[in-house]
UniProtKB/TrEMBL annotation:
UniProt cross-references to SUPFAM superfamilies, sorted A to Z: DHH phosphoesterases
InterPro entries xrefs: DDH_dom, DHH_sf
Descriptive protein name: DDH domain-containing protein
Location of the DDH domain: 2-107
Length: 307
């Protein structure tokens, strides 16, 4: 049995729910390379050896379409219908439905509901999940503890530790939630992440209500730094640069909701794409990963638009 899952809390809890629902004692679970939506050689080799495969919380229909083994594909993202007859696709979005997380779809499919279901939803949509009665019903720990637990589980992918992401499934299966809140490997990671975020905020330069932040870290915290500057500290926007992220540079630009009608994020994204940059985003955010030598050009385009 092979379980392939996303690297975040929703993917990890979904994998644990499948293992529990099927009563699995022996199984292999793998995550794609963190931040890369693809099956690498390691996953492809595991697929070749597996008898049955579950793919959870990974919006990779093209990859799943090519699997030649019996596969259950459980997800909640908008995606095309799989034509491969060996794949059973379980996704409410195919019928214009909705689920807050893959963990909810897994629970509905197997009829197994527990706190992992709720944690998956909290991981995907944050505090909004608490507006869902089923989430509140399932949680036996308080809101602060539940959000902390999501932070602890996510710490594995934030520090880019793929091996510990995969180990996290069996950690969930063998510890209760109270134990997990004190689980030392995750706590240490979370502390290191928090220090990195605070150190980055410490380099903040303020210009006309906008925070400009530059730092270097192997941790994938750039979006968290920007959210803290805008959501917690109340700046109009944040331009954040990680100048050395595993040999590349990351740039993240977030604006407050009040400025979404005044700053055309779509136009900035289009301009950067025209220049050949790997960039994406939506109404209030822009994310870009590029060669270190390209940082100044990206910043100039953002700054020119702000001016």
């Amino acid at each position: 049995m092979l379980i392939i899952h996303h690297w975040d809390t929703d993917g990890i809890t979904s994998a644990a729910l499948v293992a529990k629902a099927l009563g699995l004692e022996e199984f292999e679970n793998l995550s794609p390379p963190i931040g890369e939506f693809r099956f690498d050689e390691r996953i492809r080799n595991a697929i070749e050896k597996a008898d049955k495969i579950y793919v959870l919380d990974l919006n990779l229909p093209n990859e799943v379409e090519g699997i030649s083994k019996e596969t259950i594909f459980i997800d909640h993202h908008i995606q095309p219908k799989i034509r491969n007859p060996k794949v059973k696709q379980i996704n409410p979005a195919l019928n214009v439905g909705y689920a807050p997380s893959a963990s909810f779809v897994v629970s509905q499919y197997f009829g197994i509901w527990n706190e992992w279901t709720a944690l998956g939803a909290l991981g995907d949509i944050g505090k909004k999940a608490l507006e869902i009665p089923k989430v509140r019903e399932l949680l036996t720990i308080n809101t602060e503890e539940a959000l902390r637990l999501v932070q602890l589980i996510d710490s594995n992918y934030v520090v880019m530790d793929r091996e510990d992401v995969e180990k996290a499934v069996k950690v969930l299966l063998t510890h209760n939630l109270r134990e997990l809140l004190e689980y030392e490997p995750w706590v240490k990671k979370a502390e290191a992440i928090e220090k990195t975020i605070n150190d980055a905020i410490g380099s903040l330069e303020l210009r006309n209500g906008f925070a400009f932040i530059t730092f270097e870290s192997s941790f994938n915290v750039i979006s968290k730094v920007a959210r803290k500057a805008v959501w917690e500290l109340g700046y109009n926007g944040a331009v954040v640069v990680n100048r050395d992220f595993h040999g590349k540079a990351q740039i993240y630009f977030r604006i407050s909701p009040e400025l979404a009608d005044k700053i055309d994020m779509g136009k900035i994204i289009s301009l950067l794409k025209e220049k050949g940059f790997n960039v994406g985003g939506k109404r209030e955010v822009l994310g870009c990963i590029c060669e270190k030598s390209g940082v100044d050009e990206v910043l100039e385009i953002i700054n020119a638009h702000l001016r």
